Amino acid sequence: MTKNVNKTPLPEAQMGPAEKLLDVVLGSSAHLWHNRPGLDVNGTWMPAKQKTKKVRGKPVKPGLYVPAAVALYGKLLEVHKLNPDLMAHLASYALTETDWRDLKVACAALMLVQARAGVPVHDDDGSVAFYDDDYRKIGEAMVLWYQKKSARMLTPKAVLRVAELLETPEIAAMNRAAGFGDPAGKRAPTGRWGKAATKWLSVREANDAMLQGLVKAGFKQTIKSLARKLGYKPNSERFFGLLGWKQSQAKDGRRTVGLTNLAITKSDRFDGLSEAEICEAIVTQKLRYKDAVGRLPPDIGLTPAIMVALLPTLSDRDLRQLTPTLEELGLLQVPEIRARWEKAIASATDQRGLNIAANVRDKELKEKLVESADNAAKKAVAAATEEVNLRVMFLIDKSGSMQTGIEASKQALGKILAGFPLERLHIAAFDTVGQVLKPKAASTPAVKHMLAPLKGEGGTIHGAGVQALHRDGLRIEAGAKLIVIVVGDDAGESGAQLAATFNSLGYKVDAMALMIAGSRGGTTVKDCATTLGVPYSEIKVELFDDPYHVPRVLRTMLEAPILASVKTPGWVERVMATKLLELT
């Protein structure tokens, strides 16, 4: 359940915490866990195998990437320290309003262990005057929140990851330093995780359909790991049976459930069955892709017929990820399957299609996958600008100081510029001379073609780009809002000089943002925003390497700066207006 919260803007005194909150999104990658080997390159995770270039770094095993976890958790701790109420709203918002899986885990971990735990506050005579707010209940509610067919509730893997995060030595040290546990304690502070996770298991044990659904979805081993970690004692042997989990007596003889007459539900392999029999078993048992593929005999493997039998269980996200497999099996030539695949492509909310496109051969499929990434960016821009007539001016630094950062700028811009309607988008590159840039279409290939000639050379005058757009005829109509986004290292003329350029040309800037490419070289944009008295935000272009992060950052970056100049709620206000989660 939830309780209502008054939809009031943040007081001016709380804008410090609000800026910290924005930094969680604008300054942190969304990915903490990686399922493949990687490399630690100066604190950034990169795939161990690079297709286009050799990268040197420290090898990292699959699993939690600790530097990213420390960075994100540290920012959440800062928000909590400055304003516990704001952090509570962020946790509730992250779970119910976003698909940011790792952010949900980090928020739940913090809420379960932080010190606001509903302790009694005593009067001078020793009697209980009142009880403090219990924000640990929000952490419990995050773990236990259930909404049928929702993809936003915590999965079994996420519930287990909350404990993994809290038990990571670096995170445990941060929690002790924050006063959330015994400074001299040997065990990591885990707060109410055990209580919440135990209740999570007991609810699913009491509901066969829920437990069977999780088993079919491929979470059998995760649930076993969760039960082992908790020392969970089920009420009946059926829990072990559904998990196909044989039991033996412990050395101390404490076990009493599941030792005798245990009816094991086996996930039998399909060895010895024909292709037709395998398809029949998949349909009859309503098996999901992961569960069925693990049972296939090597001599048959995944055939077109078996894949067709599995199609009803695949989500749109599954279909997008399995594009190379569908292509290899020839199934995308079947009209009905192709139509459903294209529908899945159109519904994309991330830019993973750019990565998947590298693994398909057909040119048309590649274009469709790239289009899906563009669609994700367009949806983010549309959602952020639906209530305001917004114009966006992109100024791209191509001066000599950008020799090492220009390519990163091009890659980031290729992923985001296609999301903007061309009539609202105004682009100029600059060194000491400005150059107006116009993509032939609102698509990634068109943007890349437009940016290809840019090289890092010459001096740096941001105002030259502004002047070029003005000479080209750009005027901002009355009532429209103008955001200026500069892509570069921020080295250049003084902020006051850039501000004077905007004013002299009649551009009323409503907000400014800096996408930092390469090393930070100056403070031109920040000082300009200060001089103009407008909101300012910044982000590193490297964060746009994460296909899941692009739409999130793009939407937040657009919503966050305009909140001070537009009456419609910005991103921070939306977080504060989120109903706080409550235990049921």
Q: What features would you describe in this structure?
A:
Helix content is 46%, strand content 11%. With 584 residues, the protein is an alpha/beta fold. It folds into 3 domains: 2-225, no CATH class; 275-376; 388-545, von Willebrand factor, type A domain (Rossmann fold, 3-Layer(aba) Sandwich). The strands form 5 sheets. Strands 11-10-9-12-13-14 form a 6-stranded mixed sheet, sandwiched between helices. The protein has a 3-stranded antiparallel sheet with strand order 4-3-5, with no helix packed on it. α2 (66-82) crosses α3.
pLDDT < 50 stretches: 1-15, 562-568
Mean pLDDT: 85
Judging from the principal axes of the Cα atoms, what is the shape? globular
Number of strands: 15
Largest sheet: 6 strands, mixed
The number of distinct helices, counting runs of at least 4 residues, comes to 26
| Strand order in the largest sheet | 11-10-9-12-13-14
Overall SS class: alpha/beta
| Share of helix, binned | 40-55%
- Radius of gyration, in Å, reads 27 Å
What is the strand content?
Answer: 5-15%
Whole-number tally of structural domains: 3
- The N- to C-terminal Cα distance equals 6 Å
